[in-house]
Amino acid sequence: SNSTAKRTVLGAVGKCCLARFLEDDYRLIQSMLGDANASNVLDPFEYVHPIIREACEWGSPTRRQLCRADLQSMLHRRAEFLDRSLGTCRDAVTLVDESR
Fold first, then answer.
1. CA gap 36, 50 in Å, rounded
2. Count of beta carbons in the 10 Å neighbourhood of residue 98
3. What is the separation, in whole angstroms, between the first and last Cα of the chain?
4. Beta-carbon neighbour count of residue 54 at 10 Å?
5. pTM score, two decimals?
6. Distance separating alpha carbons of residues 26 and 43, to the nearest angstrom
7. What distance in Å separates the CA atoms of residue 30 and residue 71, rounded to the nearest whole number?
8. Which residues, including other chains, have CB under 8 Å from residue 38's CB and lie 6 or more apart?
9. Neighbouring C-alpha atoms within 13 Å toward the C-beta of 89
């Protein structure tokens, strides 16, 4: 059979809402990176198992560097949506669009 699945793409406000819904997941990523790599948007969890902070501390130096870069990239891509000082998602998207 030949079926076509309809794809729904989230708009900027939808992406913001999803990022805010997953805020604790992004805080966990920040916790993996530790305080030295604070995003200035999210605080890491105050208490996490020590193994969390060692998420990128295994493998070759190149692998460790890539792991940290990947985690930082995840935070950076959503930082504008996670910054609640910008107001609601609609406000945040409007401010981000105006600054571009």
1. 15
2. 7
3. 45
4. 11
5. 0.79
6. 10
7. 8
8. 30, 44
9. 12
Structure tokens, 35: 């305080």
Main-chain dihedrals φ then ψ at residue 12, nearest 5 degrees? -60, -40
Q: At what angle do helices 89-99 and 61-82 cross, to 10 degrees?
A: 110
Q: In this predicted model, what pLDDT tens digit does every residue of 45-69 receive, in sequence order? A: 888 888 888 889 889 999 999 999 9
CA–CA separation, 87 and 52 (whole Å): 30
What is the rounded CA–CA span in Å between residue 81 and residue 92? 7
Contact 10, 20 (CB under 8 A): no
DSSP 9: -
Q: Is residue 71 a contact partner of residue 33, using CB atoms and an 8 Å limit?
A: yes
Render pLDDT for 27-40 as a digit per residue (tens, 0 to 9): 999 999 876 555 66
Tokens 């981000």 locate to 96
